[in-house]
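Late entry, written up from scratch paper. The run itself happened at the end of the previous shift, but nothing got recorded in the book at the time, so transcribing now.
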Amino acid sequence: MKNKSNESIKMELEVILENEDIDDIMVSALEGGINYWCDDAAVIGEYLGEYGSDQISRGGQLKLHDNEDNQDYILTREKFVEGFKRYLKEPGATDILEFYDRKLKVDCGQVDAEVADSIIQYALFDDVIYG
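Output as recorded:
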């Protein structure tokens, strides 16, 4: 009988995504992550926080203009969460997670412009189509 050197284990993990994490990721996206394909971000309705980056975590909406295809896309909290989930499913994505108090949480210090861009693209396009 041969010994296997590696095992592949498929499991489901619960990740805590706090409103502050969403705000931080949105700041990274809007201040550099998506700027090469998105030339305008507008709050839909009234501001729910101090900044446009605060909208999504509070249930608001942002209209993002894709200058590559000259289309507007609406980003919501639901779409953001789906984009975040999709990002975590991609290989190497878990580097933005950390265990804290026995819970798996987002380490926003590891979320750079590229990660934020990917999350937003997954949220809007269901794939990373730019970059």
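The mean pLDDT is 92.
(Scratch paper discarded after transcription.)
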